[in-house]
Amino acid sequence: MDWTWFHKFGSPPHVYRLAGVLTPWFAWPAVAAILAGLYGGLVLAPPDYQQGDGFRIIYVHAPSAWLSVMIYATMAAAAFVGLVWRMKVAHAVAASCAGIGAWFTAVSLVTGMLWGKPMWGTYWVWDPRLTAQLILLLLFFGYMALRAGIDDLGRADRASAVLAVVGLVNVPIIRFSVDWWNSIHQAPSVMKLGRPTMPMDMLVPLLLMLLGFTLYFAAVLMVRLRAEVLRRERNASWLKEAVL
Amino acid sequence: MTPQPRTSALAAASAVLQRDLVLALRRPSQLLQPLAFFVVVTLLFPLGYTPELAKLRSIAPGVLWVGALLASVLALDSLFRDDAADGTLEQFVLAGQPLAALLFAKTAAHWLLTGLPLALMAPVTGIALGVPIEAMPGILCALCIGTVTLSLIGAIGAGLTLGVRRGGVLSSLLTLPLSVPVLVFGARATELAITGGSPSGALYLLAALMVLGLTLAPLAAAAAVRIGLE
What is the pTM of this model? Predict the structure, then answer.
């Protein structure tokens, strides 16, 4: 089998070009899916019989919570590839993921808190999922702080990659321990009381939003990856030909 | 061909362990600092919260574990820093022995000098927090197991921040979120021991974390130290 297509991913000019080509292919479907999902979720879907219109924040909250974990996994996978095969572009992918992941984690936390106000009567409850998101945010911050703390780019790449991989091993353990901790210390909250299966007219917009957010992440990742490659290769000769 | 090392990895590791213990015991004041920190932090709670033993007893698990966590993070700074500064760590990398084994020995020495004394001190501070004597075996057990994991996670953090100026704060920022499971299981075991329940379930989970840490953490620490020394 011919592996050149794979080895091409190791080449910054190729990745730079490819990311540029792919950006609109991710961005436009993302816009379409998010608009359709928002219309379905905010207009077409009926209000929830318990939560009224308050539940509609799920259309932002759930996709960002899903993305925060997914981005951490993507970041760690890219870091692992960079660590094992010494692929510089993979480190650039991991570096571009960190900021986006931290933002989505923050969005899921804030929307979770806003949702908590009408549901629990307070902005913050030590709900296991909120707590786990908070720790995930700290993991992202640690990753970014370590990256910022080391001046040499190659060393920052590899040290933060080790941290990302260690964190990936730890994330499921943290989730488990926080669930376990919560099951002891708190009565089941409102959210857990009844979890009826979602009717289709609520579920379909949610799935559309999930798809849209994921595509949006891919598009932003491509843009940030291009910026990261530009920053890293600013002295390379191919860049002059590509940009000028 | 690379020359075969004359000593086995086990012998090298035990030599490192011995060296670290001897070095540390010659400077006992440095040993006492994390311990004193732990005692002071624990004893601030009665002053800052309430002297009522019944109330203190209810927060004792959290106080003991947060105190232990902070003291062990504080002690991390000394784990690799001196050896990195005088080149010993570089010699470890070049020694032809598995670096993970040597670092594991260093971590073990670190635990013997900080984690174990912390655990042994806990009954004393526990009494000050109104913890009944019957709870002491469970608490001692939980802290002994838990501090091993804390030292192992800390070794990764200390290795990663080797090349960073003022890495102490950064390494605690990296280590503390990773230590959450130890805190959760440890505090739960302590709470069960205090309220008279059986802490074995939480202790098993703590021990599982320790085994996982013993298996993987030295490898990660070795990778981190290699990168930090470049």
Answer: 0.89
